[in-house]
Amino acid sequence: MAALSTQERNGGVESSQCSTMQPMTAKRTSFDGVTIAFHWATLLIVLGLLTTALWHAQSHDDMTKALMLRIHRSLGVSVWTATAFRLVWRMTNAKLPPFPDEMTDIHRMLVKITEYCLYALLVLQPTIGFGAMLTRGRSFTLFWGHVPPLIPHYPTVEAVLFSLHRAGAWALGLLITAHAVNALVHHFIIRDNTLTRMAPILRTERDIAELALERGDQQTSFGR
Fold this sequence. Notes:
With 224 residues, the chain is an all-alpha fold. The chain has helices at residues 2-25, 33-58, 62-92, 105-134, 155-190, 194-198, 205-211, and strands at 140-142, 145-147. It is elongated.
């Protein structure tokens, strides 16, 4: 009877341990599909913005410059809209994986700050650029339409806004570079699953096995 009681107690301990360990192995290992789609769509649009801005600056042909500027404006409106929808999705229905256990508190804080700054720039940059365009007091093209002058010309405001827009472009480029380098270092050097969380195509068999343990984590806040 004593042996049986011991076995029962041991079995109870083992069962308790299993129940406490289960949630740990059931953590999400990737972002939800909508968040992933927003992420890569935003990256493509931003690359288009940077490309058209550089092409416009380097070109000496008036027609090419006008075309690049038209595409740049349209992409700016697109990235602003995509970011707005992405933020709404993130604060309501997004399912985000927790940070890797091996990440230090300082590293997590830096990642969060970088993330917040990226979101802020993705909203502010198009807004400032559009404001600079309006203060020129001229008509302009957007997508396939023609927009007449909406306000008078304000040269000083225009110059300030364009300066802020250029500074923001450099800041956005630096933040995106830092974000990409961090992801690549984690993927190829530290070899955790940071990159595969946002790029499922890079998953290994081990990552797929871990993904099978997901239980639908309901975390939706910015801080995860």
